[in-house]
Amino acid sequence: MMKPPFKLLSIWLLVFSALTGVSLLAQKGPDSLRMDNRMFYGKMTSGKPSASWVAFFPSGQLAEIRHYEGGVQDGIVLALDANGFIVKQGFYSKGLKEGRWLQFRPGGRIAGEENYTGDKLNGWKIGYYDNGAVREKAQYSNDLRNGTTYWMDEKGNPIAEYNYANNLFHGIQWTWYPGGVLKSESHFENNVQHGLHKEYYSNGNARTEGEYTKGRKTGTWVEWNPDGSVKSKDLMPE
Fold it and tell me: Per the structure, how many domains does the chain have?
């Protein structure tokens, strides 16, 4: 979903305020420092970057603005493209990423969203298609996938839904055919398949069903034809 334009306007107000400070620094002859392969201009205090620092495109247009306290990033971060659109927006607290970080495509369309606590992903990480529809939506805790991750197509139909515990498959996992027909259902414990496994044809009829025990097929496995008639039944060896 596209974010309300008034949020972008508020960001531009911040940029304007920062630029006002930058122009004053320029008159005094600001310090310069190369960071992340880009030359930044700002003020050094006791040999460390402080307050607002900015980088420019060769045309002289603003490319990025950062804020420092005591030599570490502290405050808002904004990066722009050569056409003046914001491409990255975030916030640091004492050198650590905090809160909501956004990435944008040319023209202002949102491309991604991440949420941080103490420089680690916590909460939702969301990727978007060019049309604004959600492509991937993943739950994170302490920089690891924990909870459910959803994948969708550009029309919003589900592609996959996986559950994680500390970056490992854990719990039920689903996949779908294009258009939203269920394709498979499986169960995992700590990245090992364990429990009921089902597969379906694109017409919705069952294709395969059986049990996994700690990664091994066990019990009776049944396979069906697309019309629903039984194709085979196999008893797995112990």
Answer: 2
Q: Judge whether 8 lies within some domain.
A: yes
What count of other Cβ atoms lies within 10 Å of the Cβ of residue 130? 11
- pLDDT digit string, tens, across residues 171-200: 999 999 998 999 999 999 999 999 999 999
- Statement to judge: residues 179 and 87 lie in one domain: no
pLDDT score for 56: 92
Per the structure, the complete domain to which residue 176 belongs is given by: 144-238
Same domain, 43 and 157: no
- 98 with 32, same domain: the answer is yes
Shared domain for 105 and 22, answered yes or no, is yes
Which residues in the chain show pLDDT less than 50? 1-13, 16-29
* Residues facing 43 on adjacent strands: 50
In the 3-class helix/strand/coil scheme, how is the chain assigned residue by residue?
CCCCHHHHHHHHHHHHHHHHHHHHHHHHCCEEEEECCEEEEEEEECCEEEEEEEEECCCCCEEEEEEEECCEECEEEEEECCCCCEEEEEEEECCEECEEEEEECCCCCEEEEEEEECCEECEEEEEECCCCCEEEEEEEECCEEEEEEEEECCCCCEEEEEEEECCEECEEEEEECCCCCEEEEEEEECCEECEEEEEECCCCCEEEEEEEECCEEEEEEEEECCCCCEEEEEECCC
- In a domain, residue 133? The reply is no
Reference 12, options 132, 72, 112, 20; nearest CA is: 20
